[in-house]
Amino acid sequence: MSKRLVVSSLAAVAAVAAGTVVFVSSADAAVPDKPEISRATAHYTAAAGAGASLTFTASVTDNSGIKNLRVLAWPASSGLAPTAAEMRDVEEATCTATSATVTKCTYTVKSSAKEAASLPEGVWHVSALATAKDRNTTFAPNAAAFTVNH
């Protein structure tokens, strides 16, 4: 066998092996064993004298599917640091499966003008706890942030 053929063959084997590793890694990344929260955004809107609303959206992925996503918004100035255990008792987002493993979740809360005026100004954080159908969980203490201005 010529040196050129051996080198070419080794290069081809290395390329195939590298491609296989990348493919396996990509497949594993696409469907995680534990819930994965991505594309999380928070939008706060307030109109003078008309109240306010907060909408938090996220994509949640898990190989077993998603059971629920619990959401808590809190002012950074409060010093609050919710834990995963505390998140089990907060409100749930409305979730709709877009496939067997991916779910889009939306949490919306509205407040009166009086309630909105009493909210602390500044940066707020949104914490999220995703629970999969196989009961695995993922806690995102700072899944998104937004600012409240009066």
Task: Describe the protein.
This protein is 25% helix and 47% strand. With 150 residues, it is of the alpha+beta class. The strands form 2 sheets. It has a 4-stranded antiparallel beta sheet with strand order 1-2-5-4. Strand 1 (36-47) and strand 2 (51-61) form a beta hairpin. Residues 1-29 have low confidence and may be disordered.
- Supply Rg: 22 Å
Low-confidence stretches: 1-29
From the N-terminal CA to the C-terminal CA, the straight-line distance is 79 Å
Helicity range of the residues?
25-40%
Give the SSE string.
HEEEHEEHEE
What is the global morphology?
Answer: elongated
Oligomerization: single chain
Sheet/helix structural class: alpha+beta
Number of helical segments with 4 or more residues: 3
